[in-house]
Amino acid sequence: MKTDIEIAQATQLEAIDIIAKRAKIKSDYLEYYGKYKAKVNLNIFNDLTSQSNGKLILVTALTPTKAGEGKSTTTVGLVDGLAQINKSVIGALREPSLGPVFGIKGGATGGGYAQVVPMEDINLHFTGDMHAITTANNLISAVIDNHIYQGNELNIDPTKVIWKRCVDMNDRALREITIGQGKNNGIIRQDGFNITVASEIMAVLCLSNSLSEFESKVKKIVVAYNTDDEPIIIDQLRISGALAMIMKEAIKPNLVQTLENNPVLIHGGPFANIAHGCNSIIATKLALKLADYVVTEAGFGADLGAEKFIDIKCRLNDIKPNAIVIVATIRALKVHGGQDLKDISIENVQATFDGLANLQKHIETIQSFHIPFIVSLNEFASDTVSEIKVVKEWCEQNGYPFVINSAWAKGGKGATDLAQMVVQISDNDPKVSYIYDLNDDISTKIEKIAKMVYGAEGVEFSDEAKLQLETFNKRGWHDLPICMAKTPNSLSDNAKLVGRPKDFVIHVKELRISAGAGFIVVLTGNVMTMPGLPKQPAAVNMGVDEKGNTYGLF
């Protein structure tokens, strides 16, 4: 079979103005970035105030493994599947980061015959949103260090600057650095870099409904503490206007298309660990006004992605999913059932069955939100009839809606069964239940997530975290939602515990405030906000041939 990029390059794209018409976007609101991509001016919302919202479909998954789950492939395939059955549909997805593109994953726009295109542009510089976020982030860093150098009117403690610089690349050498070395180069202090998608600027962008709201939120970002241990916020640096200016184009969502020429809005892409892992609320709300069905996704498994999507994004913006698709694969189930990754293509019915315990916990989490769901098995060529049968029968015995999704191999036609089922279960007005109440104290919120979503026995707080709980309460941050930073590879905080771990405790190491984004980050281990490259980076297999065609983006 052809590679993803070969499939994408062989596809006949339609001009973006044609895609816009399909999405009911007037050309007056299009800002073209070449022939096949455009930004949408936010003034379009003025025409849509009386328009009712469509149905919101969230795609999530079981605990991810290196065997792959195909969540983005399922999301794109479902968009095409809904179009195949003549439904008005728009996808709303995250933007890829260059770091993973050149690191392990390669391209990040779906796969097989369920992709968004132009995949080369989207995976690389796209419309410059990542550059704008990087620039805004680093302007803050430059102003902080300049303020300290120029007399330090705010009495910023150089040892308590918590704002880091960023770059959209995996570069472990930048995790910890020393700046200001040499004569007249500022104050020497320890610093470091995050990858761009881990910047709070990205999270603020994705949770803002307008440029003015972005500026209002960014003013609240805590960047350092003074010598009296009081927080220093961006508003005190007087640069919120400059930051809004940098972001005035990046705040607009990007319009592209699937391989089957259906509209997709791609906008924003915060880390699904240190942040909430969802595309922008602007793109989601715009899609809901334009289409009868909107398909979106959240990062990692339901324990991190779906929980944050509902408890943070939906709660803060008065939206809710009408249906949830839980993606599973035979390959991932076998890993959770104890099969070694190197033997993943070998039939193992028992491991498949044993791995269903992991899927069961994610289903229970979704059920606690009281939102209808479907188990969608993403089909791989190595799946056997017996392995598929055990999953199908298990779902039937438990009363869980089940469907096989073949979009990777067949495009939209392979997802029509899933699309039909989504239409059936999404005809509702769900009364969503959240995991915790915003008025709960911080420790109670954390404990509810740990017990109800992860299945933990309880939570242990480090001495540092206990002190931070007291401090955060005193500073008025107690009513913010919680953003758990936990390994995505296990329901527990131990990445090696696959399946459905029992009798474990979640260990809270520290708390961090993201006051601009509007949530508290709870670290349960060492959270990697600047990834490194693997021994064999994907970049070594990429290039451009003599005809100008890109290769190696998977």
Q: How does the major sheet shape up?
A: 12 strands, mixed
Number of domains: 3
Q: Flag low-confidence runs.
A: none
CATH architecture of the largest domain: 3-Layer(aba) Sandwich
Shape: globular
> Mind telling me the CATH superfamily name of the largest domain?
P-loop containing nucleotide triphosphate hydrolases
Strand content: 15-25%
Oligomeric organization of the protein chains = single chain
Tell me the radius of gyration.
23 Å
Separate helix tally: 19
Distance between the termini: 12 Å
> How many beta-strand segments?
26
The average pLDDT is 96
CATH class of the largest domain: Alpha Beta
- Main structural class: alpha/beta
CATH fold-level topology of the largest domain: Rossmann fold
Give the helix proportion (percent range). 25-40%
Describe it:
34% of the residues lie in helices and 19% in strands. The chain is an alpha/beta fold and 554 residues long. It has three domains: 4-11 and 53-127 and 266-425, P-loop containing nucleotide triphosphate hydrolases (Rossmann fold, 3-Layer(aba) Sandwich), CATH 3.40.50.300; 129-239, 2-Layer Sandwich (Domain 2, N(10)-formyltetrahydrofolate synthetase), CATH 3.30.1510.10; 442-523, Formyltetrahydrofolate synthetase, domain 3. The strands form seven sheets. Strands 1, 2, 3, 4, 5, 6, 14, 15, 16, 17, 18 and 19 form a twelve-stranded mixed beta sheet that branches. A three-stranded antiparallel beta sheet has the order 7-12-13. Strands 21-24-23 form a three-stranded mixed beta sheet. A hairpin with a 5-residue loop joins strand 1 (30-32) and strand 2.
